[in-house]
Design brief:
Two copies of one chain form a homodimer. By secondary structure, chain A is α+β, with helices and mostly antiparallel strands. Chain A is 21% helix and 18% strand. In chain A, strands 5, 6, 7, 8, 9 and 10 form a six-stranded antiparallel sheet that branches. Chain A has a four-stranded antiparallel sheet with strand order 2-3-1-4. In chain A, a hairpin with a 7-residue loop joins strand 7 (340-350) and strand 8. Chains A and B meet through helix 3, strand 4, helix 5, helix 6 and strand 7 of A and helix 3, strand 4, helix 6, strand 7 and strand 8 of B.
Chain lengths: 423, 423
């Protein structure tokens, strides 16, 4: 046999060489190929840490692609769940570092690695794990002895005006957000975690998404053609993150974690595309090209919410998206959005709003992923008004929803969720 | 108003400057922003030609992303169709070159450009247009006076063993294949062509896809984890392309064109992932890590189809995918595959093969896009046997299908389809 499995403690360079060898060709028993392929190179090699005080994938600069998957837990044994979280954390630490998965292949077993990401590099992969309400109790049953530890902040989200939530895109006892700069790397990682979870968890819903790939420092555009994320708090500002994103001392085992609201939001792109430019800008409250607030010149200048035109009407309309989302209107509430677009081709859809048509439409929109310290003072606070009054609601439909408590990061040798299970 | 619309005849550099200005911020009536954003830079700037003897997107080195869409024609007027093809060709020439679309925005009209690709660059965008049988006649009606010009090679594909074609993923009177190195750029281009076709065409089915992003010169892996495309004829070999891909003198108005078979093929990834490595390699007929034929050492070495083991069994099994696809088995037939993976999240699926289960499964697989001079001696020739005998059929299901006659490339000032409509 050519090559040996990488061992803990090898140098980083050694690990990467072994990684390339394992995944690329030289290690499989009975497989030909005497020369290991060259080391990976280029931007695919960049990594994000897995271990730390916080999970990665939250304040990490957004990668190009996401694969989000929510799972139902199908076991009744607490140890199964804990073992899986440990396995997920171990494998996630390897995948995110570009290391081969533990174990050697043989012809008589299913491969350790499904292999479609072989040679592509870690691609800044992050794997972020979260807990839905069903981990703590389902149908009133405390399956895992965790019911008493359900955080108060892990509420059942209220029904918002306009919600059209499909059961097959809603909920989940666990979730994994896999982000990477390569779509196949993100999908591979999520698929691997699903695969090692057979018998313990079962995928419930999933959605792949992509970012625009704007240049560094530029705000990417979403499928409505507008810049999206201008108002985000700055993930590089620890104070802002401590205030708006990371759970503090109030959180017990969730301290250092964050709450994720995940919602696929379909956008009626065909409808939107026929709207006049001026109306689109009224709906958003910003100029389409520059991203500046209506009446303004530059993307990042403050919104003048009180400014009126000659007739006394607000220049940034009362029911515009930007106004309704502004911290000034929401007692200072802010959430950290890490939104991706999604695109599942076409689907048969009946519109509930004008033009009330049926047919094949783009099954595309926004995979809304928003992080916050507490959803009650974050997403719920902001979205309650928006769901009622936002002019944008003519064009968007929330078709799924999940709220997940994402624990603090794992320590080396530990696992995500240790603060919950170990206590 | 700041800036002026770009004009025909401006220099390329002028165009790009104007493009950045238009799309990026400075031109919209009533929109602020005195300084045009900087020119686009980096790899996003690379372009592929639109005009030429052949359409691009066929022998073009595969881009990272595809958005494929098939349309029904909803008009009965021949001139509507011809006008649309001219408009598509004009806009495609601009989009692929990174130029702004013709026309200036005003607040009182829908925007010329939906804008989500603003600033991202052309990203090697190609737009490839094809004609389905329905352009020539539908339900026996010669809607556009083109029935007599339907090429013999534009057959109705036979029903293949195992086909489970969904009507909503099958057929189409016209198609557009948009490929680019950025997902949002590919989708934007397809969406734009759909948008300018309102009232003439209506999207019938669509599928986004992604490539692995392998390093140049390496064969990418598909979602089964195997290298995919090793046996392709070399697109850089004009002789091979003339023989296998481009329609010759036999084709009349199709001379210089090519036939596209487009099929979304679902892969039962969860099932596949549980198979032993040795069995996976028997199914494919190749080693998973190296891509070498079974019994071989290197990806590109010839398959020894006659080699047997000590018991007299073929080393490359009789019903393996690689053997059944080999030119030696198919009277020399070869097709040029430009396959992408697709991933629509999860779907409710009932398996027709073992393990006969129902539930939520990955709605993912291969968007098979194969080019050939004549489908009768190309895809049909190769796939008839494969559909019956390929061991891989346990894991893959063809869920949609289209066959499209893709005409030769347009000349500058002309349009794709001119050879058909002008004669």
């Amino acid at each position: 046999m050519i090559g040996t499995p990488p061992r803990q403690g090898a140098s980083r360079r050694g690990f990467l060489g072994a990684a390339a060898g394992t995944l690329g060709g030289a290690m499989l028993a009975g497989t030909a190929g005497a020369t290991p392929p060259p080391l990976m190179h280029g931007p695919g090699l960049a990594t994000e840490p897995f271990h730390g005080a916080h999970q990665s994938g939250i304040t990490t600069p957004a990668q190009r692609h996401v694969y989000f998957v929510a799972f139902d837990i199908v076991t009744d044994k607490r140890s199964d769940v804990q073992d899986l979280l440990r396995r997920w954390s171990e494998d996630a630490a390897r995948l995110t570092a570009g290391l081969p998965l533990a174990g050697a292949d043989s012809a008589d077993q299913a491969p350790v690695d499904s292999n479609e990401a072989a040679g592509l590099g870690p691609q800044r992969l992050t794997l972020t794990i979260g807990f839905g309400a069903g981990l703590f109790a389902r149908d009133g049953v405390d399956r895992f002895g965790l019911a008493a530890r359900r955080p108060e902040a892990l509420i059942d989200l209220p029904r918002f005006n306009g919600d059209q939530l499909l059961p097959e895109k809603t909920g989940g006892d666990l979730c994994v957000q896999a982000c990477a700069d390569n779509a196949q790397v993100a999908m591979h990682a999520a698929r691997h975690l699903a695969r090692v979870g057979y018998g313990v968890v079962q995928p419930r819903w999933a959605q792949a998404g992509f970012g625009a790939g704007a240049k560094p420092g530029e705000t990417p555009r979403n499928l409505m053609g507008f810049k999206d994320g201008t108002m985000n708090p700055d993930p590089r500002d620890p104070g802002a993150m401590a205030h708006h994103v990371w759970v503090g001392d109030e959180g017990g085992w969730m301290k250092g974690g964050s709450y994720l609201v995940a919602r696929p939001i379909r956008i009626a792109l065909e409808h939107w595309d026929r709207m006049k430019l001026g109306f689109q800008e009224q709906v958003v409250g910003r100029h389409k090209a520059s991203g500046a607030p209506l009446g303004g010149m530059h993307e990042f200048e403050p919104m003048k919410l009180d400014a009126t035109d000659a007739d006394g009407n607000f220049i940034i309309p009362e029911n515009s998206h930007a106004r309704l989302g502004a911290p000034e209107i929401n007692d200072g509430a802010q959430i950290l959005r890490r939104a991706y677009s999604y695109d599942n081709g076409l689907a048969h859809i009946a519109e509930r709003w004008p033009p009330w048509r049926q047919g094949m439409f783009m099954d595309a929109g926004l995979l809304f992923l928003a992080w916050q310290r507490d959803p009650r003072s974050g997403f719920v606070k902001i979205f309650e008004n928006m769901a009622k009054f936002d002019m944008m609601n003519q064009f968007v439909t929330h078709i799924g929803s999940g709220l997940f408590a994402c624990p603090p990061g794992a320590r080396p040798g530990g696992f995500v969720g240790e603060t919950l299970f170990a206590a």
